[in-house]
Amino acid sequence: MAGKPHSNSSFTTVSTNTENSATPTTSIKTRYTSIFHYFLHLLLPPACQLCGEALPTDSSAPALCHACSSGCIQEAPASCPLCAEPYAAPMVAVHKCTQCVQHPPAFTWLKTIGIHADDLQLAVHELKYAGRFHLAHPLAQLLLQRLHREISNYAPQTIIPVPLHPKRLRERGYNQSLLVAQQLGSALKIDISSDYLLRIRATRSQTDLTRKERQQNLHGAFTLHGAITPQRILLVDDVVTTTATCRECATILVSAGHEVAVVALGRARLHS
Ligand SMILES: [Zn+2]
Ligand SMILES: [Zn+2]
């Protein structure tokens, strides 16, 4: 299932299903890693990856403090059950948003940690634009805590990050969605494919575009490279605003026989 490294990517397809082969080499490596971490903790006590607040000394993995974790989880009073479009007020009965009713997406569902605001917005911004790669781990953990039930029920077989165009990848140096996908794949023991769904057309930034302009902007931007057996795919994005990107990716993947569910870090509101 795992594919070849993307020729234009700094990262490669990652198989996470081969971690159980304990060997003397890995055990020595683990011991040295522990000793390394012991001295590292003495010199650099664990701290919140977002605000720098001191964490308990037994913290072994990059993490967020309680305040930052809580600050990352902001829910709308209600949301679309299909695409998580946030509603301003609680709803009497569960109902889909206008867009999902008029133009049903190809994906089965889309879920996020919460509203793209405050601490979550800051964390995603730092991950995406400030090169703070280590934030991918606590954000992926937060996503798994929030969406454990949905992801377990869906039982994805492959994780695919929303790809960047090679030009954008060269400019930024990394794909933040791939970093999160790698963390999810490692935690869930699911393979990641980063060379199947490709972005073949450089598109202008979506930030200042309306919903309709975003759809037009993305038309024909993605393609599939090679073939894999139809399966349940978990598509990973960073921030979802109009769902235009996820819709475009899901349409292409579903047309090849796959099922697609989407997870993203934040759900933004479109201000236009
Ligand atoms: Zn913090
Ligand atoms: Zn919707």
Briefly characterize the structure:
By secondary structure, the protein is α/β, with parallel strands linked by helices. The protein has helices spanning 24-43, 66-72, 98-102, 118-129, 136-154, 166-172, 176-188, 211-218, 244-255; strands at residues 78-79, 86-87, 110-115, 158-161, 191-192, 197-199, 222-224, 232-240, 259-267. It has one domain: 3-Layer(aba) Sandwich (Rossmann fold).
CATH class: Alpha Beta
The CATH architecture would be: 3-Layer(aba) Sandwich
Shape: globular
Strand/helix succession:
HHEEHEHHEHHEEHEEHE
CATH topology name: Rossmann fold
Described by its quaternary structure, the protein is single chain
Major sheet description: 5 strands, parallel
Low-confidence stretches: 1-29
The share of residues in helices is: 25-40%
Annotation field: number of helices: 9
How many domain regions? 1
Estimated radius of gyration: 19 Å
- Which kinds of small molecule does this entry bind, naming each only once? zinc ion
Distance between the termini: 41 Å
Spatial strand sequence of the major β-sheet: 3-9-8-4-5
Provide a descriptive summary of the structure in words.
The chain has 272 residues and is an alpha/beta fold. The chain has one domain (76-267): Rossmann fold. The chain is built from nine helices and nine strands. Strands 3-9-8-4-5 form a five-stranded parallel sheet. Strands 1-2 form a two-stranded antiparallel ribbon. It has a two-stranded antiparallel sheet with strand order 6-7. Helix 9 links the parallel strand 8 (232-240) and strand 9 (259-267). Helix 2 packs across helix 4 (118-129) and helix 5 packs across helix 7 (176-188). The protein starts with 23 loop residues before the first helix and ends in a 5-residue tail after the last strand. The model is unreliable at 1-29 (pLDDT under 50). Bound molecules: zinc ion (ZN) (2 copies). One zinc ion (ZN) is lined by residues 80, 82-83, 85, 96-97, 99-100. One zinc ion binds at residues 80, 82-83, 85, 96-97, 99-100.
